[in-house]
């Protein structure tokens, strides 16, 4: 490279460590956190469980997260970004987000969210991290979805209730029928938002 040429723009410093599939450590930790929390529950999971699953040392977790609460909340946010409120204005809408939330492929995320919100009753640090995320995401829902704060809270409550859909097994309801009823509920409440 001559003095007139410049280095390509990019990341400054050491590149992220990746596994044999090219997955960066942070992403492996997020996925491992979901897996471990689902298996052991919030109270039962440890950072060493998560680190082992991500194939890193336990101290290496602290290079990316301040602790278990922050890691699990970010893992939850990462999973929820798949149906993020940011995409509501892209045609997904609240109804579409709720329907995606009910999909069988979203089961793991529902369990994680349920675990975190139940644990927040016993952990003030976790409760504050979740509240911070709810405030930020709620602001986006209000701006992009045209919802009032009460409507945002009710939408959150609806989704939190839906985290238990996998536990209600005695009724044998068809997935399409359940989605239709969720649609009727949301459309009757909010219309086309």
Total E-strand runs: 0
Q: What would you call the shape? A: globular
Q: From N to C, what is the helix and strand string?
A: HHHHHHHHH
Measured by DSSP, the beta-strand proportion falls in under 5%
Mean pLDDT: 84
End-to-end span in angstroms? 54 Å
Number of helices: 9
Could you estimate the helical fraction of the residues in percent? 55-70%
* Global structural class: mainly alpha
Biggest sheet features:
none
Gyration radius over CA:
20 Å
Low-confidence stretches: 1-15
Describe the structure.
The protein is mostly helical and 193 residues long. It is 62% helix and 0% strand. The protein is globular and about 50 Å long. The protein starts with 24 loop residues before the first helix and ends with a helix. Residues 1-15 have low confidence and may be disordered.
């Amino acid at each position: 490279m001559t003095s007139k040429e410049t280095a390509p723009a990019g990341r400054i410093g050491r590149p992220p460590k990746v596994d044999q599939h090219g997955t960066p450590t942070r992403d492996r930790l997020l996925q491992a956190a979901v897996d471990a929390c689902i298996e052991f529950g919030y109270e039962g999971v440890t950072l060493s469980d998560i680190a082992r699953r991500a194939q890193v040392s336990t101290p290496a977790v602290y290079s990316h997260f301040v602790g278990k609460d922050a890691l699990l909340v970010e893992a939850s946010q990462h999973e929820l970004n798949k149906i993020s409120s940011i995409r509501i204005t892209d045609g997904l809408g609240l109804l579409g987000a709720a329907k995606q939330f009910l999909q069988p492929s979203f089961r793991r995320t529902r369990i994680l969210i349920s675990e975190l919100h139940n644990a927040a009753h016993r952990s003030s640090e976790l409760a504050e991290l979740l509240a911070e995320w709810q405030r930020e995401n709620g602001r986006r829902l209000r701006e992009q979805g045209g919802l009032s704060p009460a409507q945002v809270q009710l939408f959150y409550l609806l989704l939190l209730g839906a985290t238990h859909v996998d536990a209600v097994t005695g009724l044998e309801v068809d997935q399409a029928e359940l989605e239709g009823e969720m649609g009727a509920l949301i459309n009757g409440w909010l219309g086309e938002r």
